[in-house]
Amino acid sequence: MHERDIYSFINPIPFIRPITYGLRQENNALVGVNLRYNLADNWIVYGQLLLDDYKSDKNGFQIGIKAFDLFGVNNLHIQTEINQVSAYTYAHADSSRSFTHYNQAIAHPLGAGFFESVSFLNWQLQDFFVEIKFNYAVYREDSLGYHHNGKNIFKSDNSIVETGSNTVQTALMFHDIRLGYLINPKTNMQLLLGLSSRIEENKWWEKEMQYFYFGIRTYLRNQYYDF
After folding, report:
1. DSSP readout, 100-132?
2. SS (H, E, C) 41-73
3. What is the arrangement of strands in the sheet containing 206-217, beginning at the earlier edge strand?
4. Quick check: is 198 in a domain?
5. Is pLDDT above 90 for 53?
6. Which domain holds residue 68?
7. Domain membership flag for residue 122
8. Which CA distances in Å does 163 have to 61, 94, 150, 205?
9. How many domains does the chain have?
10. CA distance to 60, 85, 141, 156, 199, per residue, from 51 (Å)
11. For position 3, what pLDDT does the model report?
């Protein structure tokens, strides 16, 4: 890499990263924007837009809404959002330059070529709470292992094939409901009891799983991973 190219990568000026895309053909550039608008004191609309490698057919978007103290009920919160990413987004001609790390997708566990709806509802009454989650996704699955129809971002996008009989639309549904009791607010220690259901199906196969769970947990950061 030429010395002037190194300086362009470390320059802290906003949007300088997309400019480096033209310096070397092997670069993988992703441009995005975050949006947020407060409809009212307790209503928020948010979203994201992205464009990969400056190609109109490699893109994605997110749009969602959050509501707090819904219908005037204290601590009743709801959030719902829609995510869609076109096929081959986050991938690259050189598969080692895809948006991945340690064999995991950086942006989304489904990779690319998917549509997803995610919804949360939670309500807390004193130290008791209930949480409900619902995920629904439709994604492009390859019917044969050697075909590449855009979901697997670990493969080179030079191996693109035409969408047709080799592409299988797969549906994924995930439901989770849990009841809990807050034991210690300082450490967020909770007692939990819940039920989860996961169904994944297409025209070739169907996978279904349900399980009950209970336990004690404590965590200092609010993180969730749904896929």
Report:
1. EETTEESS-TT-SSEEEEEEEEEEEETTEEEEE
2. CCEEEEEEEEEECCCCCCEEEEEEEEECCHHHC
3. 30-40, 43-52, 59-67, 76-85, 114-125, 128-142, 167-184, 189-201, 206-217
4. yes
5. no
6. 31-217
7. yes
8. 21, 22, 9, 20
9. 1
10. 7, 10, 22, 18, 31
11. 54
Helices (H), the chain: 3-10, 16-19
Q: What are the CA-CA distances from residue 106 to residues 47, 111, 155 (Å)?
A: 18, 9, 15
Q: In whole angstroms, what is the distance from residue 133 CA to residue 31 CA?
A: 30
H helices, E strands: number in the chain: 2, 11
Cβ atoms of residues 121 and 77 within 8 Å: yes
Q: 201: helix, coil or strand?
A: strand
- Give Dmax over CA atoms of the chain in angstroms: 61
The answer to whether residue 70 is domain-embedded is yes
- What's the pTM value of the predicted model, to 2 decimals? 0.78
pLDDT more than 70, % of the chain: 76
As given in the structure block, the two tokens for residue 131 are 């949480």
Q: For residue 189, what are the CA distances in angstroms to 19, 39, 179, 181, 215?
A: 47, 33, 14, 9, 11
Report the C-alpha gap between 145 and 212 in whole angstroms. 34
Rounded to whole angstroms, the Cα distance separating 73 from 88 reads 43
Kindly state whether residue 223 falls inside one of the protein's structural domains.
no
- Distance CA(204)–CA(221), nearest Å, equals 40
- pLDDT tens for 150-187 read 788 877 766 555 544 556 789 999 999 999 999 998 88
One-letter amino acid of 159: S
* CATH code of the domain in which 96 resides: 2.40.160.10
| The amino acid at 126 | Q
